Amino acid sequence: MIVVDNFRGRPVGVLGLAKSGRAAAQALAAGGAEVLAWDDNAAVRDALSAALPLHDLTTADWRDIPALILSPGIPHSFPEPHPAVVRAREAGTEIIGDIELLGRAQPEARYIGITGTNGKSTTTALIGHILAAAGRRVEVGGNLGTPALSLAPLGRDGFYVLEASSFQLELITSLAFDISVLLNITPDHLDRHGDMEGYVAAKRRIFARQTKAAVAIVGVDDPISRDLCDELRRTGPARAVPISVLEPVSGGVYVDKGWLVDALGVKPERVRDLALAERLPGAHNWQNAAAAYAVARACGIDTAAATAAICSFPGLAHRQELVGTIDGVRYINDSKATNADATEKALLCYPAIYWIAGGLAKAGGIEPLAPHFGRLRHTFLIGRATEEFAATLGDTVPFTRCGDLATAVSAAAAQARDDGVPGAVVLLSPACASYDQFKNFEERGDTFRRLVAELHEAPSR
Fold it and tell me: Residue 34: phi, psi to the nearest 5?
């Protein structure tokens, strides 16, 4: 745990007591701050009342409180700010997040920040894997799962590799990343940022306060990110490094016919066939690999060590995770795919798919996936999105209304086995949020993994 002593002897508000909020409260208390903790959920407050000093921050006297540590899930601007945020802002109280506190508590460490609409968790984990394999002292966390303040103190020679969501970036006010990564930008979280312009503004904060010694790594395969990379190259001060899986880029890293190409020097060099990175299938993972390789080179890790670590990466749970192979059919857990853009990445990886989709639909549904419907052998629909998705599939793709995940896994397994199509996969890639039937995407993916394990144990027909 990180000890935050910047507020020793002073009151500090902590709003939101999920993992990051609890870690912030503990880190501040360990550093001698007077913690005023609050969560709008009464059940959460009841569960933590013995461990944390609770104080209703909507009625607090903010004139005497210098800082509010805000959990990233709590709105501070759109669709409307939380009442405690309004009062704190009126009093001139600093409103920051846990990553900012980490930067203040560990100022001598080096910081690598990763953001993007999709791929940031895999890229964050991959960078951490490469650095660890190269013998660097490294801690990996942030939006990935481990709260920033639950990480170990590292000091001068350590690297914090942090996944940073758009929500978290808005709560960083002084930390500057030594190496920043922006993978891509497509529409997401517009309700929290007001519009696309607000979302882009939040994402570009990954580059805020960088110096000439810093590196800014930018995916250039979408127009918004490409324009941003061009701007960074013109105006600096950080060195901008483009990455692409669509075309060659000078001064960066790209992928050509599945080969990772290092173009950081004068002459481009093919350095590794990414088919050898078995846990990173598909062009979207090639982008992740290119970004991680660029980070590794910026950290002084040689090509051989970096590419070997890319190939040994074990993968991340719930991101195209292979959870079993039964009768030649692979079962892929891609529960993290909560929108059509993320699911598209998975559909492009497999030629014969028995697709489990549905949940709580997002704007646009699965209509953007229509060009890939030819890869679908059958679709098994679950959750509240069932009728909307059924209407989109129409007569193009055969589908079955399954209702819940257990029914869908059983039906998909039976049909994939009976069809006997070479290369078939049963793919859970819902293109939906999970909240209609599950607590989160992790619980949905864990349930899928358990159901597949039970298929393994079932007697053969």
Answer: -90, 105
Cα–Cα distance measured from residue 95 to residue 171, given in angstroms and rounded to the nearest whole number: 7
pTM of the model: 0.86
Active site residue 120: yes
Lowest mean pLDDT among 86-90, 117-121, 243-247, 442-446: 117-121
| Catalytic annotation, pick one of 120, 129, 203, 345 | 120
CA 32 to CA 19: how far, in whole Å?
A: 20
pLDDT at 461 over 50: no
Nearest to 117 by CA among 19, 224, 245, 255: 224
Q: Which two tokens stand for residue 9?
A: 């002897």
48, amino acid identity: L
Told to judge if 129 belongs to the known catalytic residues of this protein, a careful annotator would answer: no
Given the residues 118, 143, 285, 339, the one annotated as active site:
143
Cα 206 to Cα 215: distance, rounded to the nearest angstrom: 11
Q: Which of 6, 19, 55, 189 is catalytic?
A: 189
65-115 tens-digit pLDDT: 999 999 999 999 999 999 999 999 999 999 999 999 999 999 999 999 999
How far apart CA 86 and CA 59 sit, in angstroms, is 11
Note if 143 is an active site residue: yes
